[in-house]
């Protein structure tokens, strides 16, 4: 099962491609699963769990509280917000991420993340991570042409590891221009 199928709820048939009417949508169907990866992840709680809709499965770090999640999209998208949801309905609040650095259109690792300025850093509270909470807004002007995004979870609420229950990217595909429409007609 790939990310697009999981974003549609894990059912049998993948969700249909939504039309781009300029409205914001869950971009799960636009994730290029073969280009996504996580670093320092517990193999029992892989990144793919974030997109299936069951926060009890989620994604956990392995050795310490730091976790890198790299998500690629099939095409350029505009991101308005990200919905971070707590693991297992908040039964272990100390493992909730509290500080996440967001890097746009670049890959970063544990060895070099401090050498690169993040596009945005978000500080999350337990309330921000509730399933019913609004998505975390992004500096929309900086997220107009996103091909991939790297989330570096630097810190959490005091636990030995970090965990997320679900992850959603809210935005829309970037409208592209078909250059054939501009070719002069011969007549």
TrEMBL record:
Protein's recorded name: Thioredoxin-like protein 1
Entry keywords, A to Z: Disulfide bond
InterPro entries linked to this entry: Galactose-bd-like_sf, PITH_dom, PITH_dom_sf
Domain of life: Eukaryota
Source organism per UniProt: Seminavis robusta
Region (Disordered): 1-24
Domain called PITH: residue spans: 16-187
GO cellular component: cytoplasm
Pfam family, one: PITH
């Amino acid at each position: 099962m790939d990310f697009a199928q999981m974003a549609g709820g894990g059912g049998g048939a993948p969700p249909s491609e939504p039309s781009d009417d300029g409205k914001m949508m869950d971009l799960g169907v636009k994730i290029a699963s073969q280009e996504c990866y996580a670093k320092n992840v517990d193999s029992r709680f892989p990144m793919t769990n974030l997109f299936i809709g069951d926060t009890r499965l989620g994604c956990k770090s392995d050795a310490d509280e730091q976790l890198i999640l790299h998500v690629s999209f099939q095409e350029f998208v505009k991101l308005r917000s990200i919905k971070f949801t707590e693991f297992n309905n908040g039964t272990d609040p100390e493992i909730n991420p509290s500080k996440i650095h967001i890097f746009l259109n670049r890959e970063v690792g544990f060895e070099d993340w401090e050498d690169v300025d993040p596009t945005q850093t978000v500080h999350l509270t337990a309330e921000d991570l509730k399933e019913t909470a609004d998505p975390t807004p992004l500096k929309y002007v900086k997220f107009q042409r996103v091909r991939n995004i790297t989330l570096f979870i630097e810190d959490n609420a005091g636990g030995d590891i970090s965990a997320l229950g679900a992850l959603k990217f809210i935005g829309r595909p970037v409208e592209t221009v078909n250059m054939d429409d501009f070719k002069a007609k011969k007549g």
